Amino acid sequence: MPESRGRPVRRRTASVALAVLGVLSIGTGALTGVSSASTETPMPAAPPPSSAGEQQVSKDITFDCPFAAPAGSQQITLTVSAAVPATVQVGSGLKFRSLAASFLLPHAVAAQLAPTAADGVRGGLTLDLTAHQGDKHSAIPTPFTVAATPLPETGDVKLTATADLPEQAITVPGKVSFDIGAPTIALKPAADAAAEATPVACTLLPDQTTTLASVLATQPPANTPGPSKPDPSPPPAPPAAEPNAVSPQDDGFPLVTPLNYVQVTATSSIYRLGATVASSRTAILNGSWTLILDPPDYIPRDPSTISGVVGFRPVTATFLGFGFVPVSATVEFLPVDYRNSKLIDLTGQLWGGVRLTTHVQVMARMSNAEVNGVPLDLGPDCVTAKPVSLNLSGKYNATTGGIISTDPNSPDPDYRGFALPPFVHCGTAEPLGPLLTGMASTTTNVNQAKVVNVNFSECASNKFPDHTKCKPIPDTPPPS
């Protein structure tokens, strides 16, 4: 690497990197995306506004939503509102401000979600805002969050969901309209963190218009910089996720089936670092599949349970701290009782034999750090201040495995990602916890695990089965 030409160059590099860090790049196909002009480009002294004439928009649309019995199917009128500019320059960001969706939840549905009014409900919903321009269209997944809302003693309850959609950049001039898609709603008791929130996929009733807003995209004046090339579209999101709680029921007859050897690989995308930490192959030990058979007919209860323990080897991660400082460190994922054990308990609920949901708590530890090639002594106990809480779900089969993950577009906010807490007890010569916290800790991270059952007869071994000699798990794309 060539030597630096002096401190002024390093300061300029740092300032450019920090400016780039401030831009959230999200692409949504041919119509929308976010692009940022280089800080090297001279800007005019008084640039023209990139958008003008903000308009308040609102749309009422009625859907049929098949809630569980006894409430059953209900018609829900969803009111979506936002503030958007009437015009926007090509290449600049279009922001949906104060984006909200409200609806009346029928009393019959609220009563079965929260048996007592004091419980309240919380959750979320997701829908697509589809941008149309000419004969092209692009769907923008939009997750909304419903805060904990108390229930009235009688009557329906009004729920308001809010969303913070990243800026969208229009890349060609012309009129762009945004249509509202059918929502998927997931609600549960506010006080019960372990309760199941079953997503309800609503359908649009016929003979309705769904356009929320129309925006005119105009060419920027000739003396202003043109837009840079839009970012590519993100890969498809992982399957939608759901919680994994089981309602208390009478004891039944447990049927426990030991599982064959199960291999696991895991990846975690840390948003603030712009890095993906991938584990080496490991195994689930003492794996079992437990079915509860309910008398008198001994019909299997849903869900069944997948359980076991797993340990992950330390891995080396490399990334750019604050977007420009080269950093490498050893990263470990450990159980909450990491001082006395290296094995993490796993318990998941297998719904309908096809979908696994699980809640996992781990501690993250960092060591052997180097910053720009210079060793940084973090000490032996540089860990997160509290456990990392992971809610994972996905398609799964008890005998063949599957992929479970967080889902940024899940209707249930608890399953959209995970928070990386602050780091503590870091540094022997000076406190380094705040430095690591500033570089890595955030709330918008994504986790994914691939679990595969392995036939030991396919693994070469002289005396005993050895999972390291099994065929490797096929590469899993990093979580989006």
Describe what is shown at a glance:
Residues 62-213 form the DUF6801 domain. With 480 residues, the chain is mainly beta. It has three helices and 30 strands.
Overview of this structure, please?
- With 480 residues, this protein is mostly beta strands.
- It has helices at residues 7-21, 107-113, 433-440; strands at residues 32-33, 51-66, 73-89, 93-94, 97-105, 121-133, 136-149, 157-162, 168-170, 174-180, 184-189, 200-201, 203-204, 211-218, 253-258, 262-270, 275-278, 282-294, 299-300, 304-310, 315-321, 325-334, 344-351, 355-371, 374-376, 383-384, 388-397, 401-405, 423-424, 446-453.
- Helix content is 6%, strand content 46%.
SSE layout:
Elements: H1 7-21, E1 32-33, E2 51-66, E3 73-89, E4 93-94, E5 97-105, H2 107-113, E6 121-133, E7 136-149, E8 157-162, E9 168-170, E10 174-180, E11 184-189, E12 200-201, E13 203-204, E14 211-218, E15 253-258, E16 262-270, E17 275-278, E18 282-294, E19 299-300, E20 304-310, E21 315-321, E22 325-334, E23 344-351, E24 355-371, E25 374-376, E26 383-384, E27 388-397, E28 401-405, E29 423-424, H3 433-440, E30 446-453
Parallel strand pairs: 3-14
Antiparallel strand pairs: 1-9, 2-3, 2-13, 3-5, 4-9, 5-8, 6-7, 6-10, 6-11, 7-8, 10-14, 11-12, 15-18, 16-17, 16-18, 16-30, 18-19, 18-20, 20-23, 21-22, 22-24, 23-24, 24-25, 24-27, 26-29, 27-28, 28-30
